[in-house]
TrEMBL record:
The lineage of its organism: Bacteria, Pseudomonadati, Pseudomonadota, Gammaproteobacteria, Lysobacterales. This is Dolichyl-phosphate-mannose-protein mannosyltransferase. The keyword Transmembrane applies. The chain crosses the membrane at residues 12-37, 89-110, 122-152, 164-189, 201-217, 258-280, 301-320. Keywords: Membrane, Transmembrane, Transmembrane helix.
Length: 368
């Protein structure tokens, strides 16, 4: 390894260590009680894994071995989310470390570019989002599934198509056993990718879908979507999105979801709740800008796919959970794709266009 390579490796190691330590410090010194509601509910729920069952029961089932390990080493879980002590800090840092393990695999596997602006951008997004995964989080499983398929693609085990199919299948499985809106995510993501270069047709599909929902609103089984507007959010969240139109009509239903989507992409209304939300407003506006920039990429590479994953997830979030806090919290389930959007990696993109360009460059170099 040459000097430049060693310097880049050292930069990545130092960057990850600093991000982890700062994230752990934020989790320990500035606990946010609202972020622990899911963790409290999971700990109080009977573990069970069933088709279309409760996401809390499924999470309790998946995390049961980890919770047992905590108890075996003397970490108390009975006061989690209510008493901010060493026990909670250990649990939060442990979950954060599990997320960071996936981030580290991505950083080293895809080789994060070690220049100043890129590392700063990576650090900003990782640290600002860290409170949402330095806690007991249901999003740990889908986040690691994304890391797994990306690393299999990076290693050459899965091609681009195989990686995409595997990810969609895994998200559909999460929809069956974990959270039902992953089923819609798994259905919309292939649609977005197939129509990536036919944006007008994609817009027409959404328009026709909106017309169908507006006309047949009273006949459609919308209970699962209405549950996203759960009453308990009013007691645990001050970041709910208030619908501007009557939600009991087809036109109002569609209008409210479209307005919610715009608010999730550009959450400037959060500033009316408090200036403490300013970092998240800046983060989301920057992320939206970078997402659309990747969508316009003429190479149609993996970054474009990552942008479609984030946009599709946001659309599903606007349908199911009209709440800024829920959106940010659940968005860490696509954190690996988010990092592909916001940061530059020294990868060899595997799309046919990239390979064609590489061959042409080699041919020119050989001729010279």
């Amino acid at each position: 390894m040459d000097i430049e390579g060693r310097n880049a490796l050292a930069t990545r190691i130092v960057l990850l260590c600093l991000c982890f330590l700062l994230s752990a410090a934020v989790a320990g010194l500035m606990p946010i009680p609202l972020l622990y509601v899911d963790g409290i509910t999971i700990l109080q729920t009977r573990p069970n894994l069933a088709v279309f069952g409760s996401s809390y029961e499924a999470s309790a089932y998946l995390f049961a071995p980890l919770f047992d390990l905590f108890r075996d080493v003397g970490v108390r879980l009975d006061a989690y989310g209510r008493v901010f002590d060493d026990n909670q800090f250990i649990v939060n840092v442990s979950f954060g470390a599990l997320f960071f393990a996936g981030i580290a695999l991505q950083v080293f596997g895809w080789r994060l570019r070690a220049d100043y602006s890129n590392t700063l951008r990576f650090a900003f997004f990782t640290i600002v989002l860290s409170p949402f995964f330095f806690c007991i989080s249901k999003e740990l499983l889908p986040a690691w599934l994304a890391v797994a398929v990306l690393m299999l693609h990076r290693s050459g085990t899965l091609g681009r198509r195989g990686m995409f199919i595997a990810y969609v299948a895994l998200m559909a499985l999460c929809g069956l056993y974990f959270r039902v809106y992953y089923l819609l995510f798994a259905a919309l993501l292939p649609l977005h990718w197939m129509l990536d270069r036919r944006r007008k047709l994609l817009a027409l599909v959404y328009l026709l879908g909106a017309v169908v929902v507006a006309v047949a609103h009273n006949k459609l089984p919308l209970d699962l979507i209405i549950k996203g507007r759960a009453d308990y959010l009013g007691d645990v969240s001050n970041s709910r999105i208030q619908y501007l139109l009557p939600d009991d009509s087809g036109i109002g239903f569609i209008g409210n979801r479209f307005i919610t989507l715009l608010q999730l992409l550009f959450p400037v209304t959060l500033l009316s709740v408090g200036l403490s939300y300013l970092p998240y407003v800046i983060l989301q506006c920057l992320l939206t800008r970078l997402m659309f920039k990747r969508l316009m990429d003429p190479q149609r590479g993996l970054r474009t796919l990552a942008a479609h994953a984030l946009l599709t997830f946001t659309i599903v979030g606007a349908l199911f959970e009209p709440d800024f806090g829920s959106y940010f919290r659940h968005k860490v389930s696509v954190l690996p794709f988010l990092l592909l959007i916001v940061a530059e990696f020294e990868w060899m993109d595997r799309c046919p266009l990239a390979r064609g360009r590489l061959k042409r460059h080699r041919g020119i170099a050989h001729a010279e």
